[in-house]
Design brief:
The complex is a heterodimer of chains A (276) and B (270). Chain A has 276 residues and is an alpha/beta fold. Chain A has eight helices and ten strands. The chains are: A alpha/beta (276), B mainly alpha (270). Chains A and B meet through helix 3 of A and helix 9 and helix 10 of B.
Chain lengths: 276, 270
C-alpha cells in the first residue's frame, strides 16, 4: 500500500475547529425493570483543535458520552454544547466514525465516501476529487471502484474515516474505530489519522480501549471509571508533534503510557469500591 | 419453502463464486461430460428394455416429438397458456408481497397482528385447495393465476420485510449522524438493502408460480403444458410427455435468466 504524501502539503482552509462543553451530564437507561446509570454528573471541556481520547473500563459510559456529543443520544440531565450551541440532534459540523466501518456494501468505495455529500445534495466533481484525495491520504489510492467485500477490515475502516472527513467537519467523533483491528494495522491507521489531522486541523474526540493508542494520538487522555460512569482524571500528553512512528520506541512514550496506566488502575480500584 | 420461514436468503450466501481461468474450463468440460453421460444412460435404459417404453422414451424420440410439436404448432397454445398463468401469478404475488411487506416493515403493530394468519395460510398445503380454487374461479386463466400467486407470495413477503427492517443500529446511526431524512434513509439504506434480499426470493417465487400454474392445469383446464402432459400420459405418448417436460425446464431457465439480468441492471443503478 503506497503512502501518499499529500498530507505534507500546506494545511487546508477549513472551518475553525469546534469546542465542546459538557455540563453535569447524566444518562440513565431503563433496562429489564431496573435503572442503569451510564453517566453521572459528567463535566468535560474540550478546547477547539484538541485531540482528546476517552478511555476507561467497559461500562464507563465513554461511548454514551460520545453519542451525546454526536447528537445521537440526549442526556437525561445536563447539557452538551458545541461552539455554544446545545446539542439535541446531530449537528452538520460533526463527522462520526463508528466501531464498525458501516460501509454500504452495494456502493463502491468512492460512492461510500461520497454518501454524506449525496445526503446533503452537494455531490459534485470537486467533492469527488476530494474523496479521491482523502482515499490517497488513507493509503488507498486507486481503490475508488472497489466494493467493500473486496476490502480487508483495515481498508474498510480507512474508507469509513475518509467518509467521516468528506464534509470537512470541524469536529470528528470516533467510537473505538480501530478496536477490531490487529496491532500493526491499528498503528498504521493511527499514523494516517494523525497525518490527516495535521493536514486539516479539527477537534477530535476518540474513544478507545487501548492505552498506547490514546497516548500516541492525544493531547489529553480523559480517564473514566464505571458504575456509575464518570470522569476520573484528565491526563495531558506533552509528547511533541508531529508524532511519527519512531515515537513509539522512545522512553518518553513509555513513560507517558506508564503514567496513564497508573491513573487507569486507580480508576478501577475506585470502581471496585476499594481505597488506595 | 420451509427454510424461508426462518432465514431469508441473501445474495451473500446464495451466490457461488465464479470459478476463474483453468478452473472454469475444467468445470465446463466436466459439465459437458456429465450431459453426455446422462443422455447415454438415458438412451441405453430406454432402448435396452431395462425400463419399460411405457415409462421412458429414448432421447432421440423425445427430440423428434419436441420438433414435431414446434413445427406443427401444437406447442404454442399450451406454452402460451402456461407462460401467461405463471407470469400473471408471479407479478400478482410480487406486487402484493412488496405492498404488504412494506406495510409490515413500517408498522410492527400491523405485522404482529396479521403475520400469524399469513403464517398459518402458508403452512397449509395450497395444492390441496386447488380443486376449491378452480370451483371458485372457473376453468380458464383465473384459478391458475391465483394458485401461482398463492405459492409465490410468501418468500417475497418474508424477504421484503427482512430486507427493509434488517439494518444495523450502526447503519441507522450513520444516517442519523448525516442528518438524513426518513426518505433518504429509505432511498439510500433500506431499499438497496432490501433488493439484496428480494432478488433471491424472486427466483424461488418464479419456480413456485410455475408449480402453481401446472397444478391448476392438472385439476381442470383446456390448455397449458400441464394439460398437455396429462393428455400425453393418458394416451401413452411417452416421448411427447418428456418433450413437454423439457419445454417446462426451458421456460423455468428463461425466467431465471431474465431475473438475473434484471437484478444486474437494477443493482447497477441503485
Amino acid at each position: 500500500m503506497a503512502t501518499h504524501t499529500l498530507a505534507d502539503g500546506p494545511a487546508r482552509t477549513t472551518a475553525a475547529p469546534s469546542a465542546i462543553t459538557a455540563r453535569a451530564v447524566s444518562k440513565t437507561f431503563e433496562g429489564k425493570g431496573k435503572l442503569v446509570h451510564a453517566l453521572s454528573e459528567v463535566d468535560l471541556e474540550i478546547e477547539a483543535g484538541q485531540f482528546v481520547s476517552l478511555i476507561g473500563p467497559s461500562g464507563c459510559g465513554k461511548s454514551t458520552l460520545l453519542k451525546m456529543i454526536a447528537g445521537l443520544l440526549n442526556p437525561s440531565t445536563g447539557t452538551v454544547a458545541i461552539d455554544g450551541d446545545t446539542v439535541t440532534e446531530p449537528l452538520p459540523q460533526t463527522g462520526v466514525a463508528f466501531q464498525k466501518p458501516t460501509l454500504l456494501r452495494w456502493r463502491s468505495v468512492l460512492d461510500n465516501i461520497c454518501l454524506p455529500l449525496d445526503i446533503d445534495g452537494t455531490r459534485d466533481a470537486e467533492g469527488e476529487a476530494r474523496a479521491v484525495e482523502l482515499l490517497g491520504l488513507m493509503g488507498l489510492a486507486g481503490f475508488e471502484k472497489h466494493h467493500p467485500k473486496e476490502l480487508s477490515g483495515g481498508m474498510e475502516q480507512r474508507v469509513a474515516i475518509a467518509r467521516s472527513l468528506i464534509t470537512q467537519p470541524s469536529l470528528l467523533l470516533m467510537d473505538e474505530p480501530f478496536g477490531a483491528l490487529d496491532e500493526f494495522t491499528r498503528e498504521d491507521l493511527n499514523d494516517e489519522l494523525l497525518r490527516v489531522w495535521q493536514h486539516e486541523p479539527k477537534t477530535v474526540v476518540f474513544v478507545t480501549h487501548s492505552i498506547s493508542e490514546a497516548v500516541f494520538l492525544s493531547d489529553r487522555v480523559v480517564v473514566m471509571s464505571a458504575r456509575p460512569g464518570r470522569i476520573h482524571a484528565n491526563i495531558p500528553v506533552e509528547l511533541p508533534r508531529p508524532r511519527e512512528r519512531a515515537l513509539r520506541n522512545s522512553p518518553e512514550f513509555y513513560e507517558a503510557i506508564r503514567h496513564a496506566r497508573e491513573v487507569l488502575d486507580d480508576a478501577r480500584v475506585v470502581e471496585r469500591g476499594g481505597a488506595r | 419453502m420451509a427454510t424461508q420461514l426462518a432465514s431469508p436468503v441473501t445474495d451473500e450466501t446464495a451466490k457461488p463464486t465464479r470459478p476463474r481461468g483453468g478452473a472454469g474450463v475444467k468445470s465446463a468440460v466436466l459439465a459437458v461430460l456429465i450431459f453426455v453421460a446422462i443422455i447415454t444412460t438415458w438412451h441405453v435404459l430406454a432402448t435396452s428394455g431395462a425400463v419399460s417404453p411405457l415409462l421412458l422414451a429414448p432421447p432421440g424420440e423425445v427430440l423428434a416429438a419436441l420438433g414435431q410439436m414446434i413445427s406443427d404448432g401444437t406447442l404454442w397454445p399450451h406454452l402460451s397458456a402456461t407462460v401467461q398463468e405463471t407470469i400473471f401469478g408471479f407479478a400478482l404475488a410480487v406486487v402484493a408481497a412488496l405492498v404488504v411487506g412494506s406495510a409490515f416493515a413500517f408498522s410492527p403493530i400491523l405485522r404482529n397482528a396479521v403475520y400469524p394468519y399469513i403464517l398459518v395460510s402458508q403452512t397449509f398445503p395450497k395444492v390441496a385447495i386447488a380443486p376449491l380454487i378452480v370451483a371458485i374461479f372457473g376453468y380458464d386463466l383465473a384459478p391458475k393465476v391465483v394458485l401461482a400467486a398463492l405459492l409465490a407470495f410468501f418468500p417475497v413477503l418474508t424477504n421484503t420485510i427482512a430486507g427493509l427492517t434488517e439494518v444495523s443500529d450502526d447503519e441507522v446511526n450513520l444516517f442519523r449522524s448525516l442528518r438524513a431524512s426518513k426518505w433518504q434513509e429509505l432511498r439510500h439504506l433500506r431499499i438497496p438493502n432490501a433488493l439484496a434480499f428480494i432478488f433471491p426470493a424472486l427466483n424461488s417465487a418464479a419456480v413456485l408460480a410455475l408449480i402453481g400454474a401446472i397444478v391448476g392445469e392438472f385439476v381442470a383446464s383446456r390448455a397449458g403444458i400441464g394439460y398437455a402432459i396429462q393428455q400425453f400420459t393418458t394416451t401413452g405418448e411417452v416421448a411427447a410427455t418428456y418433450a413437454a417436460l423439457i419445454v417446462l425446464s426451458v421456460f423455468g431457465l428463461t425466467m431465471y435468466g431474465v431475473l438475473t439480468l434484471t437484478e444486474r441492471l437494477v443493482r447497477r443503478n441503485r
